[in-house]
Amino acid sequence: YPCKRTLPRxxxxxxxxxxxxxxxxxxxxxxxxxxxxxxxxxxxxLEKFLRxxxxxxxxxxxxxMNQLLYLVQKKNSLMSEESDLMIAVQELKLEEQQWQxxxxxxxYMEKEEALKTPEDRAAEQEILAQLLEVVDKRNALIHMxxxxxxxxx
Length: 153
Known about the structure:
Elements: H1 2-52, H2 58-110, H3 118-152
GO molecular function: monooxygenase activity
Organism: Anseranas semipalmata (Magpie goose)
Keywords: Membrane, Monooxygenase, Oxidoreductase
């Protein structure tokens, strides 16, 4: 029976890994939000300099334009990362959903067939249908990530 004891522990460890990953993603999304605000403020300042400084030397204006372009590139890069993180959040939610449905399905499947009520059989079929739906959603996310990756190349 060692397998029976290690299985729940392994499942709990995987659940904890998903939780920690979700927390790390949330922290990074918050950092990105702060950085967006900082970039926005810097961009506003640079645009103001470019509008107001009619008498500034051309090389100063060029420097401001280059800084502004850099900010735009940085913002685009952060938006791409944010998009990847949002996909990762969806992936984690679907993993957790799949894990829960697997547990429910396992309970019904371990029940002796002769002891199952019509309600048990209906519930088992419903869980199986939900599980297939979750797997389809996960496949769609993977496909979307691959499309995004290819479009960025």
